[in-house]
Amino acid sequence: MNDPINTGNLEILSQEELGRTIVRLTSEILEQVSDTKKLLLVGIPTRGVQLASVLAAHLEEKTGHQIEQGVIDPTFHRDDLVRVGTRLSRSTDITSSLEGRQVVLVDDVIFTGRTVRAAIEALQAWGRAEKIMLLVMVDRGHRELPIQPDFCGRNVPTRRKEAIHIKLMQTDGYEGVYLTKEI
């Protein structure tokens, strides 16, 4: 890893391990989804969107057809805006109704569960999905709500003051999962 910004970070998953994890998650999705033509990957900004794109490419390779993707911005559905504040991110972009769809909500890291709860609430404005599943690359614990991922790349118990960073080739020029000791 040649990025000086990340000097001193602990590597949780190398590029090779991240690649194997994405392949495994792709297979797990295919095992759980009854009809891949009904599948919709919905990324939560910011890294969830890029991760959904990577997963879609792997799924398309395995299924032979395009996998629809979308983006859901949960910001205004959060119950903790005072604490976390607002930020500019990609706006919601879902091109069709969720009616009858099998949705995989994609996020990079699950922590308290509040972002996922807000994203599910935001998704409800787009229709009633047949099923909503959650995929995260890293589950770091510290849940405040009873939300658990259906698909999880790695469980990494952390302290509250630590942070997990997912780096992807398309946005960062290198790949891996890293732990920052104190934020």
Architecture per CATH nomenclature, i.e. the level-2 architecture: 3-Layer(aba) Sandwich
- Over the alpha carbons, how many angstroms does the gyration radius reach? 16 Å
CATH fold field value: Rossmann fold
> Looking across the biggest beta sheet, what order are the strands in?
3-2-4-5-6
Helix share bin? 25-40%
Spatial shape: globular
Could you report the average pLDDT, rounded to the nearest whole number?
A: 89
Strand portion, in percent?
25-35%
Report on the structure:
It is a single chain. The protein has 183 residues and is of the alpha/beta class. The protein has a single domain, classed as Rossmann fold, CATH 3.40.50. Helices cover 29% and strands 25% of the residues. It contains 5 helices and 8 strands; from the N terminus they run E-H-E-H-E-H-E-H-E-E-E-H-E. It has helices at 15-32, 47-63, 81-84, 114-123, 169-172; strands spanning 10-13, 39-43, 68-71, 102-110, 131-139, 151-155, 163-167, 176-180. The strands form 2 sheets. It has a 5-stranded parallel beta sheet, sandwiched between helices. Strands 1-8-7 form a 3-stranded antiparallel beta sheet. Helix 1 (15-32) crosses helix 2. The longest helix is centred in the first third of the chain and has 18 residues, at 15-32. It is globular and about 45 Å long. It starts with 9 loop residues before the first strand and ends with a strand.
